[in-house]
Write a structure and sequence with these properties.
heterodimer; A: about 280 residues; mainly alpha; 12 helices; globular; B: mainly alpha; MetI-like fold; two-stranded antiparallel sheet; about 0% strand
Amino acid sequence: MRSDQSLTIITRALAVISAAIVLLIVLFLLRESTPALRQLGWSRFFTDASWHPLSGQFNLTPMIVATLVTSSGAIVIAAPLGIGSAVFVNFYAPRRLAAWHRRLIELLAGIPSVVFGLWGLVVLAPIIATFGGSGQNLLTATIVLGLMVLPTVALLSDTAIAALPREWIQGAAALGMGRSAIVGWIVLPGARRGIGGGIILALTRALGETMAVLMLAGNIVEMPSSLLSPGRTLNANIALELGYASAGHRSVLFVSGLMLMLVVSVIVLFVSRREGTRRDG
Amino acid sequence: MDSGPATSRAIEVRHHWREFCVAVAVWVAATSVICVLIWILADIAIRGLAEVNFGFLIEDVQDAGRVGGIGPIILSTGLILLVCLVVAVPLSFGTAIALTERLDKESWFARNVRRSLDVLAGVPSIVFGLFGNAFFAIALGLGYSILSGGLTLACMVLPILIRTSEQAIRAVPAEYRYAAAALGMKRTTILFRVVLPVAMPALAAGVVLSIGRALAETAALIFTSGYVARTPESLLDSGRSLSVHIYDLAMNVPGGGSKAYATACVLVVLLLAINAATALLLRLAGLHNRSTTGGSL
């Protein structure tokens, strides 16, 4: 019996370590961003004249706006295509094609963000450039970001749709409803929680993505006036400037990391609580 | 009254029309997604394969990557992965065992561990980079090194590795445990002699899947394992991973495009192999492919 007890203790200790990593991350982000928060306070990140860290101007607003624009734009692209894909494999595709479609979507999910970035830079940007500008702008970044988070929407919607009771669909078909009506009136409303969860998860992925956006968005810090103007997201800003940032500047970069972390964690906890209530009830 | 049949025919036409439109929309959505995927893969293959040969895989990086190969980069990537797995695998298997020890109901402990892992899974990779830089590189004094990078990646793959291990262990039929317990085996013996061997293919699939995630990562590595493209002499040397190399060639080295494509080609081929290996292992384990890769909710 002693070995059983030590097994429990060891595995529980490992589990505690795993669970504590998140706290360690928050702790270090807080520790590193304290100097900036203490000296500048929260408001200066929104009221300063511009982002010129070397002369003490720390306005993060244009980057926050660029982050929100690219992420929400990515969802606008990924949601219809992803839900369409999920409906396709469940109701429209021949069985064999459906299996292949799922496999290819998983493949798309596994492509590294730098490879998306490279493709966007060499192939997509010149195409977007025909609309004006250099092609490295928020639109290019948004399209590629949409493609990157699409598998999340597609796979989670697929799971949600496949989990619906077969009786609902058979019953609807027995009532003489057409395929599109079944999808529109039975399937999508029935699976809306799962699909919504997929979209929210995709949003956190989009908010957290760095490399593809860094390679495609043009990285100029200015308030975007249109989708064709270049922009820099918070993530890209960290990746660009952490390498040479001096103390105060570095601390501000950690503040922006903390913001990202907080936003994403709140969304994830909200979703996991919602999932929890569904499981219980 | 005589308009009845006409109206119903009109409704029928409208229904057919709607069916048709929806079917077209769904097919177009699905096809366009696949076309873009094929477009990306074909682009990487066509531009990349021309540059890839055996010499490219073993030669040193010269002239910031414009000439030469990616030998040291592959070595560094391998070492980073090794560090990552040596730390992440025991931690994940242990955690998964702790999370699955009660078969019936979820304890308070398991629920909260799982919740914090959910949050960890959502942490943006650049935040892992910030954390790795502040904690491993500076606070622990490891500097920009393969060790810092590997440890940062270990934190990053932990949620997915724990989740897949947990599913692997749960997929072992409860009857096996009952039968073993009825024979008077201790829980530890049951775990190591019955449960883990049966779960092994699925556990391996989770490990392979995590290697794929780690290989694809860039943002968390730039400020932890660093940029240096020389052959690393120890784990405390800085080493550049394949993905960081692609980024650097594409963004910072004018004229590095073709080598960036060649490196991307190598990386994608590695990931395709990993994808196939995962599928194979899951089939060996008798688990359906979708259960582990269908997102992390």
